[in-house]
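Section 5.1 Outputs to date
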Amino acid sequence: MSTGRHKQERGVGLQPLDEINGYQVRPGFYNRDGATATTRGVSFTIHSFGATACYLLLFQPQEKEPYVTLKYPEAYHIGNTYSMFVFGLKIEEFEYAFQLDGPYDEKKGLLFKKENVLLDPYARAVTGQRNWGERPEGGADFVYHARVVENNFDWGDIRPTEHPFEDLVIYEMHVRGFTKDVSSGVTPGAEGTYEGLRQKIPYLKDLGVNAVELMPIFEFDEMESTRVVDGERLYNYWGYNTVCFFAPNTSYTSVVEHNHEGDELKELIYELKENGIEVILDVVFNHTAEGNEQGPCFSFKGIDNNTYYILTPDGYYYNFSGCGNVMNCNHPAVRRFIIDCLRYWVTEYRVDGFRFDLASILTRDEKGAPMADPPLLQAIACDAILGKVKLIAEAWDAGGLYQVGSFPSWNRWAEWNGRYRDDIRQFLKGTDGMAGTAITRITGSKDLYPKHRGDSASVNFITCHDGFTLYDLYAYNTKHNEKNGWNNSDGDNNGNSWNCGAEGETDDPQIEGLRLRMVKNAFATLMCSRGPAMFYAGDEFCNTQFGNNNAYCQDNIISWLDWSRLEKYREIHDFFRYMIAFRKKYPVLRRSTKKALCGLPEISIHNGFPWNGGTDFTSKLIGIMYAGREDADTRDDIIFYGMNAYWETLVMQLPELPNNLQWKICVNTNVEYEDGKDVESQTEFYYKKSLKIPPRSVVILVAE
């Protein structure tokens, strides 16, 4: 019987098997991607289908040249995986990268060059962009290095909040822009950081939102395509150009976190969850920061270009993202990578959900054609770790694929309902022919999402980062993106906005009053719509981007929240608080409930007079009544929403109520809102049976 080469050492821990350039090594952990640290050293694992040789580069912190290069022995290459354990490494003493050698043939999509220094796709932290707007190494020879992270954050007994999806009121925000302006009032040094956002949690809790959707927080390159326009430095501010999918953006931290990258973000998430606020990440798997043929090669291009990207037959990059390249999401290797990434953020950062940017790209096959049942989407929907996280698709892409209402769901995927945004905007400003469509959108868009999809399929929104703020929606007829430097050619040309009589800022009190009423109309409508609701940070105090509807490059007061407007528009802020609380109080507004004991239908339409469900091209007055009750509640909740989109007062006759109930007016957007104010006394209300709805106003009533 053979004793085996190292049989005598089995059972006593990892032992070196080889020595390379003075370092003791052995095969690493093949099933653990990236860098895995132990007390004895670090394992480095990377996959490549086409590489013929792999090299590990170790750097002193912040140094450009490696202090050692270790070539992987061929014996450490199993299948398409290179893995090597290096003894004696301490994570705080080095940074690392890879080099891969192999064939170079652009027409075949093979871009192997040994001299390329490549970032680990599974890196938990990335060096080089700690300070916003700077590349310390500078110049064309800038390269990314990876750092090993000590994942020892104590989550204690924190539990997932698991709010029902349809109960969410989602607050979309940009981490930097939320507190970067001095008006935010956060402590010096915390402006524009995770810590700054953490300090604002009491504000969010008071507002009443129960979920935040963070625009990209994966490490991205804000310096990509940086330029100066009219003396102002412009950046890739939004962050939709991911450098590394497993690493948090280091420029969003208030302190240096070497080898502890992510701790400040984890502390933020911990406190949000302690306060009942879920965390949804905006993730960008449709493309990367490597761009097209003219873009840099710092990771995927040099690892397996023709695996990770969808290429033309001539080796060029398809551009369904509008950003230079498209990830080959349904390739088995890429699919595995994406699921590994999502699992990591759920297990290590305890996030509650993901919004997928340009998610229709995730439905395309390796030739770019849409698939009926994309394996990636199914795998995500059915994954054991991801089983309870919220999945939200931006159901379109820049290649013309629009899947709102038809995005493959497996009853797990919800969608940003772009049809809701467009149709409600049109109805609210008085566009002819939109009344019937608006009713459909408000009551759950059942034309798009059949009953089996439930009440969570449609994420309703009127504003988001992409487009006008809610105030600007009613302050500008056209976009004003001149400061972006593209002669106002960028951004949406059909925002369905209305300036209410003057373009931009005005001193006219009537125009300003109408704008505020339109803002309240929009939010009241959103809060009375079936399904999850989302609005953009700052809308609650009329934040403005000065008419810019594509502020992706504006790292300044155009994009930053101006918190001084909170006091100026306190009425709007109070109204938002009230409407969020109102929505929470009455589940029948959000989703299907048990049938009302009184016999009223779950949803009924009363356009001007009881039980009139008809509309015509000129209809501007709609009425929607919800009726139902919670399982544990024997009391019926009956809510009436009335909207007059006309420029003159219209009469609404109300349906009769059973059981001696009477209508009570809770909201009239034509009346200045104050806590405890009697809006009913300021509304023309006759015998509890009919009322006059003022021009361009929403009235909401509750049966008591």
